[in-house]
From TrEMBL:
Organism, scientific name: Coemansia pectinata
Keywords: Membrane, Transmembrane, Transmembrane helix
Subcellular location: Membrane
GO cellular component, one term: membrane
Membrane topology qualifier: Multi-pass membrane protein
Species classification: Eukaryota, Fungi, Fungi incertae sedis, Zoopagomycota, Kickxellomycotina
The protein's name in its UniProt record: Uncharacterized protein
Cross-referenced Pfam families: Mpv17_PMP22
Length: 228
């Protein structure tokens, strides 16, 4: 188990990865907007939304705060999986390949433990993490109850389904060969593109929603929006 100091370092690293994903998404969307054909400016304005005009550091700060806050939950979940579905010395301390037969579980049992971890993780923790992201980011953005309900309706299932295209393969590696202390950083690095997707997904929710106040905009759309 990580010490409080080690866990704080892991949380800061994870928050940095989440924030980096948001920065990439914002820069890409701003670049796409500015690279759009100039002819688009001559198109009818009826029904057009106000577009992003500048980078929003507060949005990145929200992503960073979410990544830091969610890290202890994620770490304790991985520790629970370790205790509930043990794998002997296979992932203990280092990635050693030479372990005596008496101290190493049979390969079939090890594979079974990995698959059990993966099944429990994707059926229980993945839906919870998606719920925490959508609800947590909406709360930090100041959405009201009705707006949060609408956010969940529009965003929850698409984000959850998209996660199933990435995380099962990554978690097989994470659960089988990565020591507990490094699983969150490993997921943070792998999840860089995932955090970018989450930023894009939140931005799409904002631009598809009606603004609560006329002229209320941020760097990614006409309403404020926003990881694992």
């Amino acid at each position: 188990m990580a010490t409080p100091r080690q866990l704080a370092k892991i949380a800061l690293f994870n928050g940095s990865m989440v924030a980096t994903g948001n920065i990439i998404a914002q820069v890409f969307m701003l670049w796409s907007e500015r690279a759009a054909p100039a002819a688009a400016d001559n198109s009818p304005t009826v029904g057009r939304r106000e577009s992003a005009s500048s980078y929003d550091p507060l949005q990145t700060l929200r992503f960073f705060a979410y990544g830091v806050a969610f890290t202890p939950i994620s770490y304790r979940w991985h520790a629970f999986l370790d205790a509930r579905f043990p794998m002997g010395d296979i992932v203990a301390g280092s990635l050693k390949k030479s372990v005596t037969a008496s101290s190493k579980m049979p390969l079939s049992r090890s594979a079974c433990a990995v698959l059990k971890r993966l099944a429990v993780d994707q059926t229980i923790f993945a839906p919870f993490a998606t719920f925490a992201f959508v609800g947590g980011m909406g709360a930090m953005e100041g959405l009201g109850p009705n707006e949060l309900v609408e956010r969940f309706r529009l965003q929850y299932l698409p984000v959850l389904i998209a996660g199933y295209a990435l995380w099962p393969a990554a978690q097989i590696i994470n659960f089988s060969i990565v020591p507990l202390a490094y699983r969150i950083p490993f997921a943070g690095v792998v999840g860089l593109m995932w955090h970018t997707y989450l930023s894009w997904s939140n931005a799409r929710m904002k631009t598809n929603a009606l603004p609560r106040e006329i002229g209320h905009t941020d760097a990614l759309g006409s309403m404020v929006t926003v990881v694992n």
